[in-house]
Write a structure and sequence with these properties.
Blueprint (H helix, E strand, L loop, with lengths): L3 H15 L5 H14 L5 E6 L5 H8 L2 E7 L2 H6 L6 E5 L11 E6 L10 H13 L1 E13 H7 L4 E6 L3 E12 L4 E12 L5 E13 L1 H10 L2 E8 L12 E8 L1
Parallel strand pairs: 1-2, 1-4, 2-3, 4-5, 5-9
Antiparallel strand pairs: 5-11, 6-7, 7-8, 8-9, 10-11
Length: 251
């Protein structure tokens, strides 16, 4: 199994194209509503797993100041420089900024990439250390009831731009006793100018969570849960809800 850093070195090359259809503005609008609803119309945000900065830049444009921590140096290199957004390479479990923030965000299932208990506990502890009492920890994750009810299936995605054509096959392997799914990606990337074909194989190990498990982690790290709902829609979580968003408050 590849560690996340090794995986994203290859994956980052095609990340922007693969997720160009992702509705970042709608997701940021949702996050802004969560922040505003909990008293943060502006403020300083720390983003765990900032990727190429899509969420952070949009939040910066909405009046927040965002600093991102991203494991992949390649992702950091691709990130835009934008007013209100900065980022650096680092491990969200252990990188410390030496200051407090109004909220810590971790979006696009970054928490689900924390598959080991020690790693996961360290991320929650690090979030708590960067917040004063009353500060918010907002994140989304794969939801266990949906994973067990619907089960991951093989998926195919094709996308291209003027220079490259990408075909991605995602083949899941479920580990029920670990609450984990290995998503085995095969990526065929064809240069439309030269005709050259590159094949990349990667494994993304994803952990899914129940709400009692999240509550246990929260309690162990001086958090209380305020909200649990479907990401973006705000609906109550159910057996068809793959992505759940929670807000934890630092006690």
């Amino acid at each position: 199994m590849k560690v996340a850093l090794e995986v994203f070195r290859a994956y980052s090359r095609y990340y922007e194209l693969l997720y160009r259809d992702k509705d970042y503005p709608a997701e940021v609008e949702y996050v802004c509503k969560l922040l505003t609803r909990n008293g943060l119309k502006n403020g300083d945000l720390l983003e765990f797993g900032s990727g190429t900065g899509k969420h952070g830049c949009l939040l910066g444009a909405r009046g927040y100041t965002v600093h991102g921590i991203e494991l992949s140096a390649d992702m950091v290199a691709l990130a835009e420089n934008a007013p209100g957004f900065t980022c650096q390479q680092g491990d969200i479990a252990y990188t410390t900024m030496g200051r407090k923030y109004d909220a810590v965000l971790s979006l696009f299932h970054v928490i689900s990439y924390q598959t080991r208990n020690a790693q996961l506990s360290a991320v929650f502890a690090n979030a708590a250390d960067h917040l004063n009492p009353g500060g918010l920890f907002i994140f989304d994750f794969w939801y266990s009831p949906a994973v067990y009810a619907e089960k991951p299936v093989v998926r195919l995605k094709r996308i291209e731009d003027e220079q490259i054509e990408i075909t991605r096959i995602a083949e899941p392997v479920i580990f029920p006793n670990k609450n984990c799914v290995d998503v085995n990606y095969t990526i065929f990337a064809r240069d439309l100018v030269t005709g050259k074909l590159q094949i990349i194989r990667e494994t993304h190990s994803m952990r899914h969570f129940s709400l009692p498990e999240i509550d246990l982690l929260a309690s162990a790290n001086s958090f209380e849960r305020l909200i649990a709902e479907e990401f973006v829609t705000g609906d109550a979580p159910g057996c068809k809800t793959w992505s759940v968003c929670v807000i934890l408050r630092r006690i």
